[in-house]
Amino acid sequence: MTEFGVGDIGNILILTVLENDVAKDISNATTKEYFIKRPNEVSVKVTAAFNSTGADGKLKYVFIATDLDIVGLYEVQVSLVTPSWSGKSSSFFFTVRETLSVTV
Predict the structure, then answer these.
(1) Across residues 95-103, what is the average pLDDT?
(2) Within-domain flag for 103
(3) For residues 58 and 51, is the Cβ–Cβ distance under 8 A?
(4) Residue 104 within a domain
(5) What is the pLDDT confidence band of residue 1, given thresholds at 50, 70 and 90?
(6) Does a structural domain hold residue 72?
(7) Over 90: is that where the pLDDT of 15 sits?
């Protein structure tokens, strides 16, 4: 399972949209979003971007300061709008864990 540390900034979550276990060409998507449900059951919508051209089905999101501030299990779904289709993917889960503090 994918893990991030609480408070991590700049980490990238890359997800691949599959259809019948094959990467789907999503290069014509006009809206690309991740819906992220946090451990406290609050959901947020963030704008995703193609990791390259979208032909490989890959989307990415770069976490900002307030995204990963709760330890626990997060659920994410991809939401796409294309000229011929719109909808959400199945769920993907990742964990946010405590990070170690170092005193020198």
Answers:
(1) 85
(2) no
(3) yes
(4) no
(5) confident
(6) yes
(7) yes
Structure tokens at 78: 């991809």
Q: Name the nearest CA neighbour of 32 among 50, 16, 14.
A: 50
The predicted model gives 70-97 an average pLDDT of: 96
68: domain range?
2-97
pLDDT of 101 > 80? The answer is no
- Write down the residue that tokens 């405590």 correspond to: 98
Task: Tell me the CATH number at 91.
Answer: 2.60.40.3350
How far, in Å, CA of 89 to CA of 104, rounded?
45
Kindly state the DSSP code that residue 55 receives in the 8-state scheme: T
- Phi/psi at 88 (5° precision): -115, 150
Interatomic CA distance for residues 25 and 58, integer angstroms = 9
pTM score of the predicted model: 0.90
